[in-house]
Amino acid sequence: MDTDVSFTIYGEEAAVEAAMEWQKKKELRWEEIQKIEDRSEGWMEVNGYASPEEFSTCGMEFEPIQASGNNRVMVKVSMSADESGQNVPITGEHGELQFFVKSNPYVTIKGAWSDEYGMGGTLESYTDDDGTSRIFCRELFARRDRQAALDG
């Protein structure tokens, strides 16, 4: 299932630039990791990964950074991926954006997603109650609800 995501990253300029650099480094590592045939749980454990979203990526396309006032900036981002089979999804609890937000706690994101079946929703990051982790949240159709809608 093809999914398209567009969102904006907000934050102080240094934090937004650091998040972009973090993603670019992840994409370079992913190019090398894709050459490894066996990326099983054993390989992940040996290499210090708890889950595939920590190392795999479909990539992000960044537009130029823009000032948004009060010493903050924003950058628009687009992503697209085939979320079927063994691929890591972009959205959801174990998706690539969840790991991005947790790894870049000084930025926030807000945007929308849609899939090839015409379903979609909004997405937004927020701070969890403990104040330390960033959680990705999406509204409208959950993954299980999309399948039910397709079957109905």
Brief overview, please?
This protein is an alpha+beta fold and 152 residues long.
Structural key phrases:
single chain; 152 residues; alpha+beta; 7-stranded antiparallel sheet; 32% strand; globular; disordered C terminus
How many beta-strand segments?
Answer: 7
Arithmetic mean of pLDDT? 82
Query: What Rg do the Cα atoms give?
Result: 16 Å
User: Sheet with the most strands?
Assistant: 7 strands, antiparallel
As a percent range, the share of strand residues is: 25-35%
Q: What kind of oligomer do you see?
A: single chain
Low-confidence stretches: 146-152
Taken together, the total number of domains comes to: 1
The helix/strand order is EHHEEEHEEEH
Helix content: 25-40%
| SS class | alpha+beta
How many helices? The count is 4
Which of globular, elongated, flat, extended, rod-shaped describes the shape? globular
Distance between the ends = 18 Å
Question: How would you describe the overall organization of this protein?
Answer:
The chain has 152 residues and is α+β, with helices and mostly antiparallel strands. The chain has one domain (2-151). Helix content is 29%, strand content 32%. The protein contains four helices and seven strands. It has helices at residues 13-33, 41-46, 96-103, 143-151; strands at residues 2-12, 61-62, 66-69, 72-82, 108-115, 120-127, 134-138. Strands 1, 2, 3, 4, 5, 6 and 7 form a seven-stranded antiparallel beta sheet that branches. Residues 146-152 have low confidence and may be disordered.
